[in-house]
Specification:
Blueprint: H1 2-52, H2 61-111, H3 116-132, H4 137-151, H5 172-182, H6 184-187, H7 324-328, H8 340-343, H9 346-399
Helix pairs in contact: 1-2, 2-3, 3-4, 3-5, 4-5
């Protein structure tokens, strides 16, 4: 009973709190007004009374009182202006927050539309909110991630034939959401460690992700076959079991990324930075790895069949070195940087010599064809020159 009465009393007090607050504010206002009037009336005698009682300066008392009151009025005006400015700034923040909330609500309504162009409009509105209101960036990113997981098809292993196969490229709204979610300018306001994007298991074949920011993103089992990921940021991203066959990963930064058991066959890794990346049991067959840096990368049990390794750096792979068996089935060159013992292995040396001989044959064939093409061009130039001379001679004969 005592607890019930206490709760009822607190509830009654909470209902009266708004009136109490108004009463306190009114009392404070009256007190301040009375204090200001007293200062204007008696302030000169309180602060400068000894000068006002002096007979020698009594003739200037009016000027002293007027100056004091003018100073007080100016001070109060400055304080009032400051308070008005603070109040205006507070109202601006509240109005801006309300506008952002309204825009957020309208964007959510558009995302649920049945029309594609309306959904794309909602996605663009959310991306603009991220730019205009960084404090809402996390919420907008979460909404875009949920939209992607809802709209993009899943990579489901099907045991029976289906009438509608998975698309070869994302739908327009899915691609728009993917672009907005991975745009570097949008990720600037989000902590990529605490707010990881989870796109695992989605079918995103043929996605356009040039320059995308996928730091620490989860794409385990995601189908990115044929996707365009040039110059993307994949630091610490997780692609375990993902399908990246035929994807363009040239000039990509993938330090610390995981591609364990992933399919990267026929992918383009030219010029990629693979520091500390993990490719355990990954399929790298037919990959273009020219100028790729595999420093401290983990290539344990990785498949390197017909992998182009011209100017690639594999000297310091970790935790163990690449094996001669792996390099012997790849396409190493003299410019490939390999551990000394691996480069000296007979099978590797034979593979390098074979690749260099094939290159030399191609170069010699091109060189042998070059003079014929040059001679044909010279003969055409001679004929054009002869025609021009004939025309000049004809013009000169007509002139004279």
């Amino acid at each position: 009973m005592e607890l019930t009465r206490l709760l009822a009393a607190r509830h009654a007090v909470s209902r009266k709190r708004p009136w109490v607050r108004v009463a306190l504010l009114a009392l404070a206002g009256v007190t301040i007004a009375i204090g200001v009037l007293l200062i204007l009336w008696r302030g000169p005698w309180w602060f400068d009374g000894k000068y006002l009682r002096d007979e020698d300066v009594r003739s200037g008392a009016g000027a002293l009182v007027t100056g004091f009151r003018t100073t007080v009025v100016q001070t109060l005006a400055a304080v009032g202006a400051s308070l008005a400015l603070l109040y205006t700034a507070r109202n601006y923040r509240l109005n801006r927050r309300g506008q952002v909330t309204d825009r957020f609500t309208k964007a959510l309504e558009r995302l649920g539309s049945d029309e594609v162009y309306v959904r794309i409009g909602g996605i663009l509105a959310l991306e603009q909110i991220i730019q205009d209101a960084p404090d809402q960036a996390v919420h907008a990113s979460q909404v875009l991630g949920a939209f992607l997981r809802e709209r993009a098809p899943r990579c489901v292993v099907r045991t029976v034939a289906i009438d509608s196969p998975l698309p070869s490229c994302p739908d327009a709204d899915v691609q728009a959401a993917l672009t907005a979610l991975t745009r570097p300018a949008s990720r600037r306001h989000i902590n990529f460690v605490s707010e990881q994007r989870d796109l695992s298991g989605l079918h995103l074949q043929g996605a356009y992700l040039v320059g995308a920011d996928l730091q620490a993103a989860k794409l385990e089992g995601t189908n990115l076959q044929g996707a365009d990921l040039r110059i993307a940021n994949l630091h610490w991203a997780q692609f375990d079991g993902a399908n990246l066959a035929g994807a363009d990963l040239s000039e990509v930064h993938m330090g610390g990324a995981r591609f364990d058991a992933a399919n990267l066959s026929r992918a383009n890794l030219a010029g990629a930075d693979c520091h500390w990346a993990s490719f355990i049991d990954a399929d790298l067959s037919g990959v273009n790895a020219r100028r790729t840096d595999f420093t401290m990368a983990n290539l344990r049990n990785a498949i390197l069949d017909d992998t182009e390794l011209e100017e690639a750096d594999l000297t310091d792979t970790w935790p163990s070195k690449v094996t001669p068996d792996q390099i012997a089935v790849a396409k190493p060159r003299e410019s490939t940087e390999l551990p000394a013992d691996v480069a000296a292995a007979p099978a590797v040396r034979a593979r390098i010599e074979k690749a260099e001989a094939r290159t030399m044959r191609g170069t010699s064939a091109t060189t042998s064809r070059l003079p014929r093409a040059v001679m044909r061009s010279l003969r055409r130039a001679d004929k054009r020159a002869e025609r021009h001379l004939d025309m000049l001679q004809m013009l000169q004969s007509r002139r004279y």
